Amino acid sequence: MYLYKNQNNQVNSLKEKPFKLEKEIQNLFEANLIALSNLQFIKSEFTIKNNRIDTLAFDEESNAFVIIEYKRSQNYSVIDQGVSYLNLMLEYKADFIVEYNESQKETLKRSDVDWSQSRIIFVSPSFTDFQKQSSNFKDLSIELWEIKQFENDVIVINPIKKSKSAPSIKQVQNNDNSEISKVTQEIKIYNEEDHISGKSDDIIELYETFKNAILQLSSDIEVVPKKMYVAFKLKNNIVDIRIQQKNLIFWINMKKGTLDDPKNLAIDASSKGHYGNGDYELSISDTQNLEYIMSLIKQAL
Question: Alpha-carbon distance 239 to 236, whole Å?
Fold first, then answer.
């Protein structure tokens, strides 16, 4: 990756400043965890059963714990450590609950946590091709994030996306009692097929029409299927869509009183329970107001 600074129409390249220690990466991440990952910081150097987790975080959107590990070298197996730590979390759930409650001064019950959405993130300046390939399974909740530091206090973070043709980890499992098998039995990675399965062709076509329109708003928008909806994200969620039997439910991620909606199509969802993010909800059953709805969603960019 090449970065340049434009000063008075004169372009100068920015030189990379390699991190000297893993601790530098960890300190930077933990001090800016919400800004960098939208995760709630729980504990640094969380020790459990002779294992030390670099950062324990909580994903409030998924109601799930997230383990973050920082690496500066490349001589380690992301899949071995990742699967081992995920198994550790699933085996000792009570310890994670206790740590959350003690550090946050709140009362989180085991039933409040969606353990099926547990995941681990490895953060490193670079990953080998083998590391990328070994974690490239559509149903394995191991993520790789590259981080680089440049002069002029510039930080670049690049989450490595799994390929669209990523296989299932179940295709390479040899033992149903393996650690990988235990993880895949309890942790679920959702995809769009989970949401459109069993829906009518009309509803699927309606979803695809709006999906394509949303993606045209910005080339950086990412489709992230969750348990209860499909999220459309830049850094934060823009709009969440729940695909139902007869309609689509949209939640636009804006606070009450901030959406310019002269047609009053969106209803106030701030005081009622709802799955998606934001205070504005729309029920969609046709494409009649597609362009207008796009103008509403665009306000959340």
Answer: 9
The predicted structure's pLDDT at residue 176: 60
- Using the 3D structure, point to which of 186, 217, 251 is the last residue of a domain: 186
Contact between 127 and 79 (Cβ < 8 Å): no
Residue 67, Cβ neighbours under 10 Å: how many? 23
If you write DSSP's letter for every residue of the chain in order, what string do you get? ---EEEETTEEEEPPB---S-HHHHHHHHHHTHHHHHS-EEEEEEEEETTEEEEEEEEETTTTEEEEEEE-SSS-S-HHHHHHHHHHHHHH-HHHHHHHHHHHHTS---GGGS-GGG-EEEEEES---HHHHHHT--TT--EEEEEEEEETTTEEEEEEPPPPTT---GGGS---TTSHHHHHHHH-----HHHHHTT--HHHHHHHHHHHHHHHTT-TT-EEEE-SSSEEEESSSEEEEEEE-SS-EEEEE---TT----TT--SEE-TTS--SSSSSEEEEESSSTTHHHHHHHHHTT-
Question: For the chain, what is the domain count?
Answer: 2
Report residue 167's pLDDT band, with 50, 70 and 90 as the boundaries: confident
Dist. CA 206–CA 209, nearest whole Å: 5
> Are 275 and 251 in contact, with CB atoms under 8 Å apart?
yes
Query: What's the confidence (pLDDT) of residue 174?
Result: 63
Q: Do 18 and 134 fall into the same domain?
A: yes
Print the domain residue range for 249: 192-298
Q: Does the pTM of the predicted model rise above 0.90?
A: no
